[in-house]
Amino acid sequence: MKQVHTFGEYLKNKFGEKVYKAPISISGFTCPNIDGTVARGGCTFCENDSFSPSLDGVQELKGFHLNLSSTQNPYLDKQLLQLEKQFEVISSKAKREYGAKKFLVYFQSFTNTYAPFDTLKALYDKALGLEDVVGLSIGTRSDSVTDETLEYLAELNKSKEIWIEFGIQSIYDETLERINRGHDSENVKTLIQKSKALGLHVCGHLIFGLPGENKEMMLNTAKKAYEWGIDSVKYHPLYVVKRTALANEYARGEFQPITEDVYLDVLLEAIQMKPSDVSVQRITAGVDDSSLIAPQWCRDRNTQIRNINKKLKTVGLKY
Fold first, then answer.
1. Domain coverage including residue 13
2. pLDDT per residue as tens digits for the range 118-132
3. What does DSSP say about strands 240-241 and 292-294: parallel, antiparallel, or unpaired?
4. Is the dihedral of CA 49, 54, 55, 57 positive or negative?
């Protein structure tokens, strides 16, 4: 069996030891698709409360939100403390339970370039100064990154491992409009290529099973993402959770979630067409709590991984 090229493998080969992505949530960050800059309510599948930071005893900054036009940040010191305290807890657990030696600080929740440059620079610099940190991975949207931020990240990348993660989701503008994404596919393509031209590492997020999309459309999105030059990929099935616009569509019979069989078929083909040097960071997704409405096969990740490996085995691959 041939092993699918994973992000963990990439990092271990580069650094010679296990590197763990430490997910961090910073209070005060939001999204232009939530605050009304490009749209309101977020993407139809997004349950905004699910992004509320787990602050490990550090006070959350309720009612405080930054954007690209913010002229001041009176809570920067508290945000820096949130970063430090969260990393301390997460890194200690990862060392103890997973044998992690080095870390990428993963700015995960909301849009982590959607703030004034001075705030971003302070947070990024603080993260890179934490013990055993070798780099950053920054989750964001393609419509929320300034040239100043990209150029600074490119400068950091000369001595550290800097990744930027973009939600591609689909290359079809009619799909992006239907899910209330707030930007078109050309915007994503432009920012991916701009990031690559500056030497940054790019991870692309793909969602299979978006409303109105068939298998061919899903695979075309994967093909284009590879062509745009992404270095790593996260594959997600679309699932429905409570308190979302998608949940309302599902209740009205306007949306039917992707079946596990179709997801496995699309995933297999997407992996087979993937360039060998593009690493895989995520191969499925789901949630095992009362918020999940459908499909039920997205509830148990261990079962998902077993079924994925059964499918991959048919072509001599394993994950």
1. 2-318
2. 999 999 999 999 999
3. antiparallel
4. positive
Q: Which residue, 185, 225, 193, is CA-closest to 206? A: 225
Which two structure tokens, joined as six digits, stand for 284? 């499925």
Q: What sign for the dihedral angle of Cα 69, 73, 78, 83?
A: positive
Count structural domains, the chain.
Answer: 1
pTM tops 0.85, yes or no: yes
pLDDT digits (tens, 9 = 90+) for 194-249: 999 999 999 999 999 999 999 999 999 999 999 999 999 999 999 999 999 999 99
Q: Up-side HSE of residue 18: CA atoms within 13 Å toward CB?
A: 11
Question: What is the CATH number for 111?
Answer: 3.80.30.20
The owner of tokens 């913010």 is 70
Measured between its terminal Cα atoms, the distance across the chain in Å is 10
Q: ∠ at Cα 206 (308, 46), nearest 5°?
A: 105
Task: Please give the full DSSP string across the chain, using - where no structure is assigned.
Answer: -EEP-BHHHHHHHHHSS-EEEEEE--TT---TTTBSSS-BS-STT--GGGG----TTSPP-TT----TT----TTHHHHHHHHHHHHHHHHHHHHHHH---EEEEEE-SS-TT-S-HHHHHHHHHHHHTSTTEEEEEEEE-TTS--HHHHHHHHHHTTTSEEEEEEEEE-S-HHHHHHTT-SS-HHHHHHHHHHHHHTT-EEEEEEEES-TT--HHHHHHHHHHHHHHT-SEEEEEE--EESSSHHHHHHHTT---PPPHHHHHHHHHHHHHHS-TTSEEEES-----STTEEE-GGGS-HHHHHHHHHHHHHTTTEE-
